[in-house]
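One such shown below:

_____
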Amino acid sequence: MLARIHLPLFTAMHEQNRHLNTEESLQGFFAEHGVDPEEFTRAFNSFTVESKYRRALSLTKKYGIDGVPAIIVNGKYRTSATLAGGRERMFRVVDFLVQKETGSAR
């Protein structure tokens, strides 16, 4: 399902500015892409999804994420395009931090 729905969901949210922030709006979107509404509702309200949702909220708070894109490296460092001064610089910062954490920093 992820492979089939990821790009259309990204496009709907970030390019078409669709507001997919309720169960009903998401159910409609998934139905447009061939997912049975009852199957969607079962998955959406499942223990697994609820657990992952709570974990995501907890990590968002723990790391102080207030926007996207944001990247956390090894649970220690947070950066974003805003903090780094642009997306290209953000990825250079991430590369540096990964090298630092793996002991391969130059």
Notes: The longest helix spans residues 47-63. Helices lie at 2-14, 23-32, 37-44, 47-63, 81-84, 87-102. The longest strand covers residues 70-73. The mean pLDDT is 94.
